[in-house]
Amino acid sequence: MDARPNPDLTEIREAINVIDERIVKLIGERQAWVEQAGRLKRDQDEDAVRAPARVDAVISRVRLLAVPAGASPEVVERIYRALIASFVDLELEVHSGESTGP
Q1: What is the sign, positive or negative, of the torsion defined by CA atoms of 27, 28, 33, 34?
Q2: pTM attached to this predicted model
């Protein structure tokens, strides 16, 4: 964390806004890969999209990444479960041919 000692609330909020911009860009990158995966899986059933074993593997991996990053594994897991659920919904749309992306 690149924080100066004793920042005021405005500085904290500005720093959070900068981080949010980076997170949204990364979500956009992840979405592009998810959409590509959805197109590749069109000849498979929806279970290939839902991929519960893959979800479990991702959750385990990000929980391990959380600690050295200074993040709570529980918070990271909850965020990733919401992220994955949203992306599964999007991937199902792409998989079925209903969506072609943004």
Answers
A1: positive
A2: 0.84
